[in-house]
Amino acid sequence: AGSRLRQEDFPPRIVEHPSDLIVSKGEPATLNCKAEGRPIPTIEWYKGGERVETDKDDPRSHRMLLPSGSLFFLRIVHGRKSRPDEGVYVCVARNYLGEAVSHNSSLEVASK
């Protein structure tokens, strides 16, 4: 078979999975995720089964979706009543051919 000039579309696959993190409240943190696919997959993050809101949904969000697909926290928010950042995360990469889901990654806030 000769080399095909036209690149074939292919479904997403995760090439870098997020790892578990233990972070201090108020500190920045990054959950890494990198996916390949053609067309380039869109990345979304889920925590405990619910989609994570980022600056793409709300410009004032303290969570940013980086171009690589990683999830960056400007500062970890953690209080007695509200613990929006602690939990188990996955990243999901999608294109029209399918989706790929990363390993689970737990983000834990260190107790002072």
Structure description:
The chain is an all-beta fold and 112 residues long. The chain has a single domain (10-109), classed as Sandwich (Immunoglobulin-like), CATH 2.60.40. 0% of the residues lie in helices and 46% in strands. The protein contains no helices and 11 strands. The protein has strands at residues 10-16, 21-24, 29-31, 34-38, 42-47, 50-51, 63-65, 71-73, 87-95, 98-101, 105-110. Strands 2, 5, 6, 9, 10 and 11 form a 6-stranded mixed sheet that branches. It has a 3-stranded antiparallel sheet with strand order 3-8-7, with no helix packed on it. The protein starts with 9 loop residues before the first strand and ends with a strand.
Q: What would a concise description of this structure say?
A:
GO terms for molecular function: cell-cell adhesion mediator activity. The chain has 112 residues and is mainly β.
DSSP helix count? Answer: 0
What fraction, in percent, of the residue positions are helical? Answer: under 10%
Uncertain ranges: none
What is the distance, rounded to the nearest whole angstrom, between the alpha carbons of the first and last residues? 62 Å
Radius of gyration: 16 Å
The CATH class, by name, is Mainly Beta
Largest β-sheet summary:
6 strands, mixed
CATH topology: the name is Immunoglobulin-like
GO molecular function, one term: cell-cell adhesion mediator activity
Pfam family, one: Ig_3
Organism: Gopherus agassizii (Agassiz's desert tortoise)
Domain Ig-like: 12-110
